[in-house]
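To close the section, here is one more complete example, presented without commentary so you can practise reading it yourself. The ligand is FE2/S2 (inorganic) cluster.
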Amino acid sequence: MNRDAILVGGALLVWVAFVTFWFSNIVELTSLGVVTGFLLTTVTVVLHYSEGTGWEPTEDISQDVLEKRAETLPETDFPEPMNRSIGGGGAPAAVGAGGAEAELADSEEEEETEGFDPAAIEDPETYEIEFPKKGETIEVAEDENLLKAGEDEGWDLPYACREGQCLSCSGHIADGDAHEYIKHSNNDTLNDDEMDKGYCLTCTAYPTQSFTLETDESP
Ligand code: FES
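Output:
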């Protein structure tokens, strides 16, 4: 039922009743008040129980908006929050320097030098790694990472993620370019410049020849 129509009808009824009783003077003013009150009450009750025009919620388009927004954003590969390599470690430098082609070239190069599986090495060689801060030189197999080798000696070496995703375990190869001395099974943190200067992530660094390692050193 239309609420406005009922309201107008009720008001009209009250007005007609009021005029009729006033001018005809058939009943006393008290009776007029009672009748008017009755009519108003009736209108109020009718209005209260009328269904009105109803309300339909508008369609929720928030999910569509989010999906459309997501389609306009490039894919990213962010590491963990609070990570030094937020923004991709060495990757941003590649994007800034040469756009998509440089990034692709770098990623191909990275695949060649990073991400190998040490467990797949057959007949691993052993190399002599000097830890000057510990005053010792130990033998480390090429399928054993530097952090683990040090811990096996009972040394308390720094680390956090143990997955090449932070900088907590980083060390410095005193002999030069880290690319020449180790391979990372995973490196989401150090860029090429930093590795060129001898830095490595001991938790994922596997020796490819003998060298001197300064632990707890970061770029
Ligand atoms: S402990 Fe995080 S990179 Fe080695």
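Once you have examined the tokens, check your reading against these statements. DSSP finds six helices and seven strands in the chain. Residues 3-49 form one domain.
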